[in-house]
Amino acid sequence: MITKSEIEKANFRNVWVIGEVEDGIILPVTFELLGAARELADKRSSEVWVILMGNNIKQAQLYAFGADVSVVIDDVRLTYFIDELEAKILSRLIEKYLPEIILCRATSR
After folding, report:
1. What is the residue extent of each domain of the chain?
2. What CATH fold (topology level) applies to the domain 11-102?
3. The overall pTM is greater than 0.85
4. Which residues pair with residue 26 across a beta bridge?
5. Chain centroid to CA 82: how far?
6. Residues of 39-50 as b/e, b for ≥16 C-beta within 10 angstroms?
7. Residues 15-28, mean pLDDT to the nearest whole number
8. Which DSSP string corresponds to the chain?
9. Which of 29, 41, 63, 78 is the most buried (most CB within 10 A)?
């Protein structure tokens, strides 16, 4: 018999990378994280999603670096880092799409 907990866990899928964007440029750490995410996703038969938030983001298509899906939130309000705003956006995306794993850079951001 499948338990409620197992059903809930089954709803979570995919490996996400929270990309780092500064002045519209995707920082190199994003590409490094995509490589690690690709390895994890391949082991789980899932997809790699990259989440990019910023203003005037350049080179948002990251398929060549291992991403299956690029989610780009390009908004003038994201020109500068505002933790409350980015956290709110991420929370909504997580609640909607239920990633199994999220990788991000270990910084104050």
Report:
1. 11-102
2. Rossmann fold (3.40.50)
3. yes
4. 21
5. 17
6. eebeeeebbbbb
7. 94
8. ---HHHHHHHT---EEEE--EETTEEPHHHHHHHHHHHHHHHHHT--EEEEEEESS------GGGT-SEEEEEE-GGGSS--HHHHHHHHHHHHHHH--SEEE---S--
9. 41
